[in-house]
């Protein structure tokens, strides 16, 4: 399991990007999502975030995702980067 | 076929996801100058994902990694190599030793990934005085080297001269690189023209590069891609002439003639070689003719 030990962020608020913040949390995964396309794609975005966290071995974290129309590959990249920056052992 | 290569900043999603559809034959995902040191980790993951998940419409992908005198280049390759980029652009290559050092690590990764060796080619970026002077040694250092690439901005800083539109200050470097690359049997690409608003200037600069023997030219702006493609494409007249040359050669052989002329000009080996190059380029652009049996 990958432990998030510090607050970290990745991405930007520019168009086609997404800003992801991650924080230590000990009660499972807590996810908040802001997106202009939340109504149409909110479920898909959340699914991608959860899948990426699972691939990174993160089971407990608080995550804030502010989407600016990012493609799925961009979303996954930013989540992975935020995890890498916030995890144990990461400089 | 690489007439044009478009640089795209490696940490800017808007550019990365659209870059393949701006007309360039190749795109260069840039992990070096376009990315701040604190964002190198984010950029290499973003570029990797773009390569892995995006349909780039058959556009060739080249990745400019960080130079081997930084702490970033191995991590760049760790992320990028599994996605099999067409080429790795290696900045600030100054010697054959630089090529061999980068090549050794790429070989290590290729072995680990189960790729054939030399699956991923190297394109040394020559942008120092030392690199220019060592151009042939660099171009011939390894079978992995597919092309040389001239970077005039850093070079002119190293030469301690101003970069100008006319480009007199890089004449030597340009001709030196073309000669070195051709002697080593590899391609050679010209530096970008940096005034993105000068539509006439790019035509002139690209035409000069073509006249000097460059294979193609890089661009930092989508606005320049069309002009570069046009300049580096054979014209219909050149294509027609190339086919006439090959037909004349065929007929001469049938008739047992040694020397032949076309439009009053002797057709010798260099003219045939150039005709073959023109036809090869035309075929890649879909402008070739059906082979006659």
Short note summarizing the structure:
Chain A has 91 residues and is α+β, with helices and mostly antiparallel strands. Chain A has two helices and four strands, in the order E-E-E-H-E-H. The model of chain A has no long low-confidence stretch (mean pLDDT 94).
Describe this structure in words.
The complex is a heterodimer of chains A (91) and B (293). Chain A has 91 residues and is an alpha+beta fold. Chain A has one domain (8-86): Ribosomal Protein S5, domain 2 (2-Layer Sandwich). Chain A has two helices and four strands, in the order βββαβα. Chain A has helices at 38-55, 72-86; strands at residues 8-10, 18-23, 29-35, 61-67. Chain A has a four-stranded mixed beta sheet with strand order 1-2-4-3. In chain A, α1 packs across α2 (72-86). The two termini of chain A are 18 Å apart. With 293 residues, chain B is of the alpha/beta class. Chain B folds into two domains: 4-231, TIM Barrel (Alpha-Beta Barrel); 236-284, no CATH class. Helix content of chain B is 46%, strand content 14%. Chain B is built from twelve helices and ten strands. Chain B has helices at residues 13-18, 40-53, 73-80, 96-113, 129-133, 135-139, 152-159, 171-184, 199-212, 225-231, 236-254, 269-284; strands at 4-9, 26-30, 60-64, 87-90, 121-126, 147-150, 187-190, 216-219, 261-262, 265-266. In chain B, the strands form two sheets. In chain B, strands 1-2-3-4-5-6-7-8 form an eight-stranded parallel barrel, surrounded by four helices. In chain B, strands 9-10 form a two-stranded antiparallel ribbon. In chain B, β7, α9 and β8 (216-219) form a beta-alpha-beta unit. The longest helix of chain B is centred in the last third of the chain and has 19 residues, at 236-254. Chain B is globular, with a radius of gyration of 20 Å. The relative contact order of chain B is 0.10. The mean pLDDT of chain B is 94.
């Amino acid at each position: 399991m990958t432990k998030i030990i510090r607050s970290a962020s990745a991405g930007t608020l520019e168009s086609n990007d997404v800003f992801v913040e991650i924080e230590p949390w000990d009660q499972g995964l807590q996810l908040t999502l802001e997106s202009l396309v939340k109504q149409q794609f909110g479920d898909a975005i959340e699914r991608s975030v959860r899948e990426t966290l699972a691939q990174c071995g993160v089971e407990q974290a608080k995550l804030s995702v502010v989407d600016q129309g990012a493609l799925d590959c961009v979303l996954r990249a930013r989540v992975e980067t935020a995890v890498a920056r916030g995890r144990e052992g990461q400089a | 076929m690489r007439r044009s290569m478009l640089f795209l900043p490696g940490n800017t999603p808007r550019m990365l996801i659209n870059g393949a559809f701006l007309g360039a034959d190749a795109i260069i995902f840039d992990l070096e100058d376009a990315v701040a040191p604190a964002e190198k980790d984010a950029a290499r993951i973003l570029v990797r994902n773009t390569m892995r998940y995006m349909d780039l419409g058959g556009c060739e992908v080249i990745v400019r990694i960080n130079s081997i005198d930084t702490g970033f280049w191995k991590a760049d390759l760790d992320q990028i190599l599994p996605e099999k980029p067409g080429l790795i652009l290696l900045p600030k290559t100054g010697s054959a030793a630089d090529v061999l050092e980068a090549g050794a690590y790429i070989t290590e990764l290729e072995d680990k990934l189960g790729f054939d060796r030399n699956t991923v080619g190297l394109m040394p970026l020559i942008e120092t005085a030392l690199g220019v002077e060592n151009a042939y040694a660099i171009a011939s250092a390894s079978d992995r080297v597919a092309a040389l690439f001239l970077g005039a901005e850093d070079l002119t800083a190293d030469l301690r001269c101003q970069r100008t539109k006319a480009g007199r200050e890089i004449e030597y470097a340009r001709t030196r690189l073309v000669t070195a690359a051709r002697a080593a049997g590899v391609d050679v690409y010209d530096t970008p023209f940096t005034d993105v608003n000068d539509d006439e200037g790019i035509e002139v600069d690209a035409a000069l590069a073509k006249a000097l023997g460059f294979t193609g030219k890089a661009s930092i702006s989508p606005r320049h891609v069309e002009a570069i493609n046009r300049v580096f494409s054979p014209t219909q007249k050149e294509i027609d002439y190339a086919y006439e040359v090959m037909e004349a050669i065929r007929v001469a052989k049938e008739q047992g003639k040694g020397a032949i002329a076309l439009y009053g000009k002797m057709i010798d080996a260099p003219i045939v070689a150039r005709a073959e190059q023109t036809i090869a380029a035309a075929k890649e652009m879909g402008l070739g003719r059906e082979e006659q049996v």
